[in-house]
Amino acid sequence: MKQLLKKYSLFARALLFVSILVLLKFVAHIYDWESLSLNPLFSGIVAANVFLMGFLLGGVLSDYKESEKLPGELAVSLEALLDEASIITKAEKPLPSKEYMESLQGLALAIRQWFWRKEKTTSVMLRLTALNDFFSAFEGGVQANFIARMKQEQSNIRRILVRIHTIRETSFISSGYIIAEVTTCLLCLGLVLSKIDPFYESLFFVSVISFLMIFMLALIKELDNPFAYYENDCRDLVSLQPLQDLLRRRVDPLESMGLEHSTWEA
Predict the structure, then answer these.
(1) pLDDT in tens, 196-215
(2) Counting CB atoms within 10 angstroms of each CB, which of 18, 120, 158, 177 has the fewest?
(3) Is there a contact between 101 and 251 (Cβ–Cβ < 8 Å)?
(4) How many CB atoms lie within 10 A of CB 122?
(5) What's the pTM?
(6) DSSP string over 68-117
(7) 156-176 exposure pattern, b = at least 16 Cβ within 10 A, e = fewer
(8) 32: left (phi > 0), else alpha (psi -120 to 50), else beta?
């Protein structure tokens, strides 16, 4: 039942606004406030608003499709570093391999917390940069291609984190959102104040047109941040399953080493 409510939360919110508009339409009809006439200019404004929303939706969808790949790429790079650490640990040389493994596992847990805004971006970046000390310590005791691969994966993780941070903290053309919101509000007001006979037809058009515009606007704003796991009312988020599987596979079995463990939130 809870999952069903989450699935249709966006639909329910749009329906609530439409219900308010229908109620206002009844009030405007009763008190004869329907002073606007329906003409071709009104339909042109509706078409222009739909075009604007289509433009915004196309922009956020491109970011969303890119965002779907980022958790998987992040998990792959982290696991590659963990694999290299496992190989170094098995080498019979006096290297800080155990400390390096613990640092990597701490980084993985910090990234998990970072997605939920329980860890700052600066803190995660500092953990990632701190791996350089281990790379320096490994020089001379580890093959150069091992260190080169680890530095490459470190660079990949940094690139992915910066990209996720940018998508999460910035909106796609904020001025476009303002125009779409203002136009949608004016169109809804125009539908309420327009005189359409018979009255039941006016209720139909007010309900359908306002629902489509409000739902599309809410959907665009929700898709604009596909990493908003910290917001309980967001549903259309990219999956963190690859990172979750990595933590369960490579971090949970090592809890005996004193690492912090956090259960995944539903």
Answers:
(1) 888 888 899 899 999 999 99
(2) 120
(3) no
(4) 8
(5) 0.80
(6) HHHHHHHHHHHHHHHHHHHHHHHSSS---HHHHHHHHHHHHHHHHHHHTT
(7) bbeebbebbeebbeeebeeeb
(8) left
